Amino acid sequence: MTNEGLLEERIGEWRQYFRRRQAVRPVDIEELEDHLRSQVDALREAGLNEDEAFLVAVKRLGDLDSVSREFAHEYSERLWKQLVVSPGAGAASLTAHRDTVLAIGLAIAAAVALKIPELFGLHMSGPDADASFYVRNTSLLVLPFLAAFFALKRSLQPGGWFRLALPFIAAGLIVNLLPFKPDGHTLVLAVIHLPIALWLAIGFAYTGGRWRSHEHRMNFVRFSGEWFIYYTLIALGGGILVAFTFFIFEAIGLDAEPLVGRWIVPCGAAGAVLIGAWLVESKQSVIESMAPVLTLLFTPLFTILLLTFVATMIWTGNAIDVGREVLIGFDLLLVVVLGLLLYAISARDSQAPPGKFDRLRLLLVLCALLVDVLALWAMVARTSEFGFSPNKTAALGLNLLLLVNLGWSAVLYARFLANRSSFTLLERWQTTYLPAYAVWAWIVVVIFPAVFKYQ
Amino acid sequence: MDINKDLVAASATPLVLAILTEGQSYGYAIIKRVGEVSGGELSWTDGMVYPLLHRLERKGLIEAVWGQSETGRRRKYYRLTQAGAEDLARQQRQWQTVDQALRGVWHMVAHPAMQPV
Question: Alpha helices of A62-123 — where are they, by DSSP H?
């Protein structure tokens, strides 16, 4: 064997040995290997042979255990996860038990809270139903329990509890006391934006009041997506449960509709909000590999869809026929693309160098931006026919908000791919921008009704 | 000279940040530069520099980009950010204050080790 081959073999062994330390990631090893090779080259120039140079270089790099420990310290978050995933530790299982009781208790409380208004004659369904009450208040009856779950779990200070309660109280006053016209657009808009506005209040509880920290914000983003996945899964299961309820009661000649419509569906939907959150918290490692896989699966599919759409538009020369629904549709498209991007970012190792999936994501964002700009263009061209109704203003505002977010993301992504900027800047941009959505949701809830005269 | 571990650790951040004011650099070159500016007196365990660099990056004081070495290997380069430059200025003032205070007392203890007991 040549000396050169021997050196390669030694470095290979060193790499294998290092890889066994969980705290050190493959990209870190790559960086250290570059260091090792630079050192070996320098020592050989100074007259040492390969063997000596390798030994001295490894020695100078420091003993692997302490270097790994230092890395583990830096990635303490990762280390923490490894500790939690392996059960058995007494204290950990005790906390897990406490969380389980807390989550189930609050889930039942949320379900009960949703049914309490019935005692006062506010029925959810049936001939004497008061739909308007539930349209306004459903999120206010359920989401406080989710906020309480995190406030308790993160041991929020009394001042934090107070600040957490404020948005809920304010929202309750606004939707119930303002003179909305029944079934008016501004009421519908306020009701749609209310959960989003309150979700950010939940973010405050989730981060234990440390909502300014970028890392905590990113964790909350991660939580939101995972919660959504769990909620969807629970809803699917719930659908099967409901189908079977109908089926077995029908077999004995009974109609299960009152039981399902009044109890199972509303209580289940309310309780699932808490159970979903608890599952995200306690089964972190399971879902963590699921969300990135889903984004990996759908990023190429959405890219192909958008590319095909743009090509078809050019080919047929058909312009986008703008109406309110179309604009809302494009808003949703941007939300999905942003979700795919945000998810990929939150799951991506920020230290890793650019890869082919990064290029694909940039392509997806660029396509979405192009399509959206075309839609906006069509809309502006015909704005005189439209005027500014509350619905159009809300849809347009959200569209611009998303456009700014994705536009600057594309710039930062392109800079990262060109090795001119680091990935953390892209992460920072996303977490910095989050409050803009909360502000917008609150504007729609608080300011829109008055501006558009409660129509 | 053997320098106390805590001192080495405390001075590591300003040293790295100051070296990066000369332009972007990578781990191995930074360590070499530390050796040069300290006249070989300050020796770090090479491997420890990388967790430090990652920590500084996470704090936003420096940023990392992947590039290539002269021989075509992938190499991670680091450079100072605006926040890093500001932090360095702050640290510089702190160190200068400490340095000044120490200068004020050194003459009181003029070579105690050499005096007969």
Answer: 64-74, 76-85, 90-119
ipTM, two decimals, is 0.80
Residue A385 burial (C-beta neighbours within 10 Å; 0-12, 13-18, 19+): exposed
Residue among A367, A96, A363, A336 at smallest CA distance from A225: A336
> Residue A209, SS3?
coil
d(CA A276, CA A104): 11
**Residue of B27, B46, B57 lying closest to A62 (CB–CB):** B46
Q: How far apart (Å, rounded) are the C-alpha atoms in residues A194 and A171?
A: 8
The CB-side HSE value for A119 (13 A sphere, CA atoms) comes to: 5
φ and ψ of B25, to 5 deg: -155, 175
Which residue, among A118, A422, A395, has the nearest Cα to A266 in the 3D structure? A118
**What pLDDT digit, counting tens, does each position of A258-313 carry?**
888 888 898 999 999 999 999 888 866 555 667 778 888 899 999 999 999 888 98
Shortest CA distance to A246 belongs to which of A270, A230, A264, A226? A264
Please report residues of B whose CB lies closer than 8 A to that of A421.
63, 65
- A395 and A351 Cβ atoms separated by less than 8 Å: no
Cβ contact B48:A70 at 8 Å: yes
- The shortest CB-CB distance from A34 to any of B57, B58, B75 is to B75
Nearest CB among B46, B55, B63 relative to A422 is that of: B63
Q: How far apart are the first and last CA of chain A?
A: 85
The distance of A432 to chain B (nearest Cα, Å) reads 14
For chain B, the distance separating the N- and C-terminal CA atoms, rounded to the nearest angstrom, is: 24
Residues from chain A contacting residue B57 (CB–CB below 8 Å): 422, 424
User: Which of A24, A70, A415, A429 to substitute to test the interface with B, most B CBs within 10 Å?
Assistant: A70
- Report d(CA A12, CA A385) in Å as an integer: 69
* Alpha carbon of A18: minimum distance to chain B alpha carbons (Å): 12
Tokens of A381: 């061209």
The mean pLDDT values, 10 residues at a time, for chain B of 117 residues are 82 93 92 88 83 88 88 88 93 94 85 54
Q: Are A173 and A443 in contact (CB under 8 A)?
A: no
pLDDT in tens, A357-377: 889 999 999 999 998 888 888
Q: Do B51 and A67 touch (CB under 8 A)?
A: yes
SS3 A126: coil
Three-state secondary structure call for residue B76: strand
Give the predicted TM-score (pTM) of the model: 0.67
Kindly state the helix (H) or strand (E) to which residue B66 belongs, with its residue range.
strand B62-68
